[in-house]
Write a structure and sequence with these properties.
The structure is a single chain. It is built from twelve helices and ten strands. Strands 1-2-10-7-8-9 form a six-stranded mixed beta sheet, sandwiched between helices. A four-stranded parallel beta sheet has the order 5-4-3-6, with helices on both faces. Helix 5 links the parallel strand 4 and strand 5. It is globular, with a radius of gyration of 18 Å.
Length: 317
């Protein structure tokens, strides 16, 4: 297959979703008591401050605006580890359309409560996202509802790619961008935008050790899944990605590294203690790779870490 998302589509998405999502800040991680790495410039892109607390609002709103209003009015359905569902619930709230979100039983209860606060109907189905997604797709097909995939969708990828545009606008000479990976929609969009604007930028993905589907896929050269999920960062834990994301990651992402749950917790604590930022485990994953020394960077490099989601699970344990 060929990649169906390009810089023009990401720029169009930026125009379409403006006013519906926040242009989130980039802050330099300085001064601090304890440096995260031996580099001169570390920047944090704070998508944890996005509406609904996660970058997922971008892709969901762009998907919403790509569909005929009469299709949306019949209802929207999606499956989520929590954050994508919140993005879809927000999109449905904007459109005044009914939304049903399927969740795996590994989704924290607080995510379900937040979904319901946005007016979404929540249904738990199966152990993990992949199980919930099969149920969501079946219901969408049966009832003729709009289905929003969290990562294997060109409109969603283009929406997430607007983060890459914002990073390059704020730090045009950035050397390395670190991005957490779940299904791969976020890093697909960010890497497409960043590499189109500056092919020399390094884009590095970060996956949990206990859900290393895309890391394993790159090792063998084709898409493979994982049989079991062993991470508390459930928003980074589908069993299997999708061909469109794998192709983009093969072409545009320089490396994927793995982090443990403990390393993510340490990064979440660093964000809280040093920066006053409440990031969930998945939101701290990219920084965890830097703190744990999983990424080689020189002291003169400018590094941008994407803090992709808000929460307190990283500091509550």
């Amino acid at each position: 297959m060929s990649i169906t998302v390009d810089l023009a589509e990401i720029r169009l998405a930026q125009t379409k979703i403006a006013g519906y999502v926040r242009h989130t800040p980039i802050v330099e991680a300085a001064p601090v008591k304890e440096r995260a790495a031996d580099i001169d410039k570390l920047y944090l892109k704070l998508e944890c401050m996005q509406i609904i607390g996660s970058f997922k609002a971008r892709g969901a709103v762009n998907k919403l605006l790509s569909l005929p209003p009469e299709q949306v009015a019949r209802g929207i359905v999606a499956a989520s580890g929590g954050n994508h569902g919140l993005g879809v619930a927000y999109a449905g709230w904007l459109a005044k359309a009914p939304v049903t979100i399927y969740l795996g039983h590994n989704t924290p209860a607080i995510k379900a409560e937040k979904l319901e606060s946005w007016g979404a109907k929540v249904i738990f189905e199966g152990d993990v996202w992949d199980d919930a997604n099969r149920a969501a797709m079946a219901v969408a097909e049966r009832d003729g509802l709009a289905y929003f995939h969290p990562f294997a969708d060109a409109s969603v990828i283009a929406g997430q790619g607007t983060i890459g545009l914002e990073i390059l606008e704020a730090v045009p000479n950035v050397d390395t961008i670190l991005v957490a990976i779940g299904g791969g929609g976020l890093i697909s969009g960010v890497s497409l935008a960043a590499k189109a604007l500056n092919p020399s930028i390094r884009v590095i993905g970060v996956e949990p050790v206990g859900a290393a589907s895309l890391y394993n896929s790159l090792q063998v050269g084709h898409l493979v899944g994982v049989d079991e999920i062993h991470t508390a960062a459930n928003t980074l834990a589908p069993r299997l990605s999708a061909p469109i994301n794998f192709e983009i990651i093969q072409q545009k992402v320089d490396e994927i590294v793995l982090v443990t749950d403990d390393e993510m917790r340490q990064a979440a604590r660093w964000l809280w203690l040093e920066m006053g930022i409440a990031a969930e485990l998945s939101g701290a994953a990219a920084l965890a790779a830097l703190l744990a020394g999983k990424i080689q960077v020189s002291p003169t490099q400018k590094v941008c870490v994407l803090v992709c989601g808000a929460g307190t699970d990283g500091v509550d344990h």
